[in-house]
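Appendix B, record 7
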Amino acid sequence: MNAIKLSRHLSLVLRHEPSKIGLVLDSQGWAQVSELLSALAAHGKRTTRKQLEQIVETNDKQRFSFSDDGTKIRANQGHSIDIELGLSPETPPEKLFHGTATRFLGSIMKQGLVAGSRQYVHLSESQETAIQVGSRHGQSMILAVDSAKMDREGMDFFLSENGVWLTERVPVECLEEQGLEDDES
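Structure tokens (predicted):
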């Protein structure tokens, strides 16, 4: 299985549907590496430990990590299943960014950013990352998030292992349109 297909399949089973291959994650989203490899093989996706290690090391978004002892693997964030990542609240930078497609802007400016099917809203420290995220869904719109105000108002922020800031929601009053992708050039 090539690396891109394997990474996408790992995202599916470690973030959304472990049952698709008969895998059971613990409460923090970890899967035993040996069980994952067996389950993948049983579903026609034979994978080696070395291939898993390459995905963890080279994934451009650092979506996965191994436990300290290397016996478990999990997705770092983006889960639609209920897991506890074990992250502690952290003080965010004053401003964070969220990339979205322009077609979603009307809804966002009415209700704010909500996690939807995921556990958290994902935010980045850089506009460039937000542009990349938003462009996956169409023409990008970058939203600046007044994370300092949210923090002062007692809203929690968490920093995932791969540098993505997570929060449960972002109220409309803490959002500011930064412009379209074309305007950023």
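Remarks on this record: The helical segments are 3-16, 33-42, 49-58, 105-111, 127-135, 147-152. The CA atoms of residues 50 and 66 lie 13 Å apart.
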